[in-house]
Amino acid sequence: MIVPALALDPAGQRIGYGAGYYDRALAMAAVVKVGVIFDFQLVSEVPAMDGDVAVDWVVTDRRVLRSVRAEELCAPSTGGDRDITGEGVVTNTETPCRS
């Protein structure tokens, strides 16, 4: 599921638009959650509150990151990091697992 955000952190925590609609939907959905933002919206830490649901992947206009949360939930895979942009931007390309 593609999830909008005002900001995301590497753990997949997000600042949404304030109503909690996505958090409630994501809590019930057994899907891979993908947060989509511009790179400047990626911040070091977003404060997490009860009921917040983190995304598994963070996609920006410059990179694709598997969230720290997803890495903790998934067994190690044979995938890895590689430059898919041609600009030296390292992109994590491992296959996500379900939470």
Topology of this protein?
Blueprint: E1 2-4, E2 7-8, E3 14-15, H1 21-28, E4 34-36, E5 57-59, E6 64-66, H2 68-73, E7 81-83, E8 90-92
Textual characterization of the structure:
This protein is of the alpha/beta class. The chain has a single domain (2-92), classed as Rossmann fold, CATH 3.40.50. The chain is built from two helices and eight strands; from the N terminus they run E-E-E-H-E-E-E-H-E-E. The protein has helices at 21-28, 68-73, and strands at residues 2-4, 7-8, 14-15, 34-36, 57-59, 64-66, 81-83, 90-92. The strands form three sheets. Strands 1-4-5-6 form a four-stranded mixed beta sheet. It has a two-stranded antiparallel sheet with strand order 2-3. Strands 7-8 form a two-stranded antiparallel ribbon. A hairpin with a 4-residue loop joins strand 5 and strand 6 (64-66). The protein starts with a strand and ends in a 7-residue tail after the last strand. Residues 93-99 have low confidence and may be disordered.
Order of helices and strands: EEEHEEEHEE
Give me the CATH architecture, please.
3-Layer(aba) Sandwich
Number of helices: 2
Largest sheet: 4 strands, mixed
Stretches with pLDDT under 50, minimum 5 residues: 93-99
How far the N terminus sits from the C terminus, by CA atoms, comes to 13 Å
CATH class: Alpha Beta
CATH superfamily: NagB/RpiA/CoA transferase-like
Structural Rg? 13 Å
Range of helix content: 10-25%
Q: Would you tell me the structural class of the helices and strands?
A: alpha/beta
For the record, the count of structural domains works out to 1
Can you give the mean pLDDT? 78
Number of strands: 8
